Amino acid sequence: MLDVAAGSGNVAIPAAERGADVVASDLTPALLESGRREAARRGLDVEWREADAEALPFEDASFDAVVSCVGVMFTPFHQTAADELVRVCRPGGRVGLINWTPQGFIGRMFATMKPFVPPPPAGASAPPLWGDPDHVAGLMGDRVTDVEVDRRSIDIARLASAEEFLTFFKTHYGPTIAAYRGLADDPDRVAELDAGLLSLARDHLAEQGRFAWEYLLFTGTRA
């Protein structure tokens, strides 16, 4: 199994625990090192590879399963990344993706942050589009069959208020950290982004009664 944009191994490590022969690839060495330490602590043999999801260093049809959990969605050029996911999966193998949806809380958070961050490169697509089943189906085309999509949500018990959400994301979540770093010299814009994210979180809590973040589970078979 190949875990693409694996981060610190939140999918790769459980897969290895269940007996899979796992390669975990990511562009960020610090995340790979964190995953390597955790796998070693659990006595698991996982191969960690620094790799760009848009240019995977693996031969065609190398893996029985190719997966990504809230990882490949952050590649700027979606079609290129999708082509790589399909290329390295063997015919008859499985492709599995979990991504935040555009209309879910995290998708709405990205929409809230958009006016506060630099424009993406020409031709780049928004990350939450990976949570739109039509978008993903278009990326995969007829190269992936037996497709199943399921909208699900995860309940977040750790964050009980909008203020806790904002503090946690400003401290720990890469895209939010980057947005605020770009506004470091503009306190008015920082305050404006704070207000936007707090309003979003409060509205979501009022609607849901809790933090429930929607994602899309996409699975299919390599033709």
Your description of this structure?
Strand 4 (63-69), helix 3 (78-87) and strand 5 form a beta-alpha-beta unit. The protein has a domain at 52-152 and 213-222: Rossmann fold, CATH 3.40.50. The model has no long low-confidence stretch (mean pLDDT 97). A seven-stranded mixed sheet has the order 3-2-1-4-5-7-6, sandwiched between helices. It contains eight helices and seven strands. The two termini are 17 Å apart. By secondary structure, it is an alpha/beta fold. The relative contact order is 0.15.
Task: Write a short abstract of this structure.
By secondary structure, this protein is an alpha/beta fold.
Give the arrangement of secondary structure elements.
Elements: E1 2-4, H1 12-17, E2 23-26, H2 29-41, E3 47-50, E4 63-69, H3 78-87, E5 89-100, H4 105-113, H5 133-140, E6 144-156, H6 162-172, H7 174-181, H8 187-208, E7 211-222
Parallel strand pairs: 1-2, 1-4, 2-3, 4-5
Antiparallel strand pairs: 5-7, 6-7
Q: What attributes characterize this protein structure?
A:
alpha/beta; 7 strands; Rossmann fold; globular; 7-stranded mixed β-sheet; 223 residues
